[in-house]
Design brief:
The protein has 206 residues and is of the alpha+beta class. It contains 6 helices and 6 strands; from the N terminus they run E-E-H-H-E-E-H-H-H-E-E-H. The chain is 28% helix and 25% strand.
């Protein structure tokens, strides 16, 4: 089973990117501030710590969050990660069974979407506006993004939601996947390890 492609949307500098993976190894190469750190951080957050912060949203999405908080008719944005795998239909169906929407059809590609979303938008907007009511100038002391930056508020109002991706001729159809089942499946088909960068080491220390 092989991870072929990852698609990221609305994550830090990565508004909408696709990352193709080679058969053996893939290197992220580029100048400073090109998104290399953001790409690796996405894997760590979605698949390991799940400890998202407000500034994991891209800057344009933070603007939308504040518009949502002001009741300006926009939906609360989402950070998305799509992971696409190739499988051997003869030997690997068992490992990927929860990612196969139609068992009667042999397929060679499966996919899963991880989506950071506000799971109860009405509660979020009510509790934000109650915490920071408008003053006499029709302004609030803090924006919604500042409210979500307060300790533990991201985990109180946002969570990861999982979907199976069913490929069609034109697009992907989403099928909701229970969190426990999704985590179990991902842990069985994907191993993610991180080695923290070592700074300020020179030849004399090696």
């Amino acid at each position: 089973m092989k991870l072929n492609k990852v698609c990221l949307k609305n994550f830090r500098r990565l508004e909408n990117v696709e990352i193709d993976f080679e058969a053996k190894e893939t290197l992220f190469v580029g100048p400073n501030n090109s998104g290399k750190t953001s790409a690796t951080a996405a894997f760590k957050l979605f698949l390991k710590t799940r400890d998202f912060k407000i500034h994991d949203f891209s800057s344009s999405r933070i603007i939308e969050i504040d518009k949502f908080g002001n009741g300006q008719g926009v939906d609360f944005p989402k950070i998305k990660m799509d992971m696409l795998f190739t499988i051997d239909p003869d030997t690997e169906y068992g490992r990927a069974i929860t990612l196969i929407p139609q068992l009667e059809t042999l397929i060679s590609e499966v996919g899963i979407r991880l989506e950071l979303a506000a799971f109860d938008q009405e509660r979020l907007i009510h509790e934000y506006q109650s915490s920071f009511p408008k003053n006499k100038n029709d302004e609030r002391k803090k924006s919604l993004s500042e409210f979500l930056a307060i300790s533990n508020n991201m985990s109180r109002y946002l969570k990861l939601i999982y979907f199976v991706l069913e490929k069609t001729d034109q697009e992907y159809i989403l099928h909701h996947l229970e969190e426990g089942e999704a985590k179990k499946t991902l842990s069985s088909i994907l191993r993610v390890d991180f080695v923290e960068a070592q700074r300020n080491i020179d030849d004399q220390e090696l």
